[in-house]
Amino acid sequence: MRYCINCCIHLLPNDLHRQCFRCRGPDHNNQKCPVCRGENKIPLYTDSKQMKWLAVLEVRTDHCESWNGFFCLRKGKLCSLMFGLIIMTLVMVSYILTGAKHGLLLIPSPFHYGAFASNPSLMDNESLSDMKDYYQPSKMNISYVKDYPSIKLIIDTITSKIEFITRQRPDLEELRKQEPHMFSVIPNKFLPNSKNPCWYEEYRGNTTTDPYATNSYALYSKRFRIIFDYLRKVFWNHLYHYKDKHYRLRCLPHFYIIGQPKCGTTDLYDRLRLHPDVRFSAIKEPHWWTRKRFGIIRLRDGFHDRYPVEDYLDLFDLAAHQIQGVLQGDAGKERGQRNNIIIGEASASTMWDNNAWIFFYDNSTEGEPPFLIQDFIHAFQPNAKLIVMLRDPVERLYSDYLYFASANKSAEDFHEKVAESLQLFEGCVLDFSLRACVYNNTLNNAMPVRLQVGLYVVYLLDWLTVFNKDQILVLRLEDHASNMRYTMHMVFQFLDLGPLSEKQEALITKSPASNTRRPEDRSLGPMLPTTKAILRDFYRPFNTKLAQVLFDDAFLWKRT
């Protein structure tokens, strides 16, 4: 066994040791180098006996120590050292995580946020982690307390800060400045002989032009490419030709199912689309008004290119083709007959999701959005009809958790997430208005469960500042489940739809319910009784106000 006297690196047999910069330089000569020829070396003696039966350890005669001696550690010792460091790191991480969960850490938890992100200069490439930096940590530490009295104090604080203040409605000119392209595409008047809002738009392409080549829905979603492939094939046949020009019929929805998530909107959609006079967009939930027009596919993934209004209008081309068939048929036969086909759109985010406003509109109202979705819808469609399906907000939240949580779902985990979300919401209302908290993107994404979606009355009051009360139909899922025929008749009457035959009505009302709870979620059982009591207390003042606005005590949800 040999060692280099210059760097103490273990040498293998026949190793020329070329890596040592002390042994081999640019002008090195093996014959002239005293190190390579074996000079200035002494054998190692132990107890006055030369250790010739082993190897000779080559040492430097000047006995100088070099920093390179650090590398003399054997590989085994170095691996042991690294393994020890890894074990220590894992122990520390385990301590930190356990301490944060049980409130044992001596440092404040970073989950309790105070001030809001009021900087509108956040750009598309910034992630949620960047957004959270705009929150200022509070001195309070979040603890996952499970006892009812402790959380009740938090709820009492939130209740004391609740104020239902009417928002200031923006004028039309302000809306035009924010979305000039949208106002240049959608006219302010529609065809008089159509119940659904439609208009003719000049088409400047030719037979070889693909009208859907740049449609973002077709580009980003494989599921809808089949639909657009069909539309391409029939597109030219549905153009209206007049004076050497080509026109396509454009349409907006006549009614919107605007909310709420996990409240039966899918079931209502599936039944309504069976009515012979009702058509829907090619995609059930386009989420254009709330997300896609801002370039949001999934907020956690950041921003993409914004979907223009033309992409949204393309989703109604299938229905527009059928309406055009009625209009052209009537023109040659009975000019006085009116088209009665109506189009619906069923994005369950429309009522409540205004999370993107802070990135596109100036924050001039102390954390409250200056413009909401309903402002723009009303600007184009002041006569639009809106349908809202609600359910007990306590049960809605648990259903929402079971549907969207990906792993480790349990009643206990739900309880802890509710406790954390309540403390985050409390930290917000201590410094900001209720509306500012409800519409704040960063807070809503920080909360483990979507408490804010169940604050129905906050959203409804903001919609009522724009639309008349008789334009909004509010239903309860509990009533829909117990007497489906009655609720569907209410919807038909609200939309002024024609009568149905017994066979058609039976098909609509007796088909199985859609989008019910998955079997694996049912096996988890109900939420903890303590969790239910906590959420009952939290939602009670909001339900009370909702019942007052709608003049219906059923929205107190006392019996559920």
UniProtKB/TrEMBL annotation:
Sample GO molecular function, one term: N-acetylgalactosamine 4-sulfate 6-O-sulfotransferase activity
InterPro entries: CS_Sulfotransferase, P-loop_NTPase, Sulfotransferase_dom
One Pfam family linked to the record: Sulfotransfer_1
One GO term of the biological process aspect: hexose biosynthetic process
Entry keyword set: Membrane, Transferase, Transmembrane, Transmembrane helix
Domain of life: Eukaryota
Sequence intervals crossing the membrane: 78-97
Keyword Magnesium applies: no
Endoplasmic reticulum is among the record's keywords: no
EC number: 2.8.2.-
Ranges where the Sulfotransferase domain occurs: 253-517
Family classification: Belongs to the sulfotransferase 1 family.
Protein name: Sulfotransferase
Protein species of origin: Leucopsar rothschildi
Name of the encoding gene: Chst15
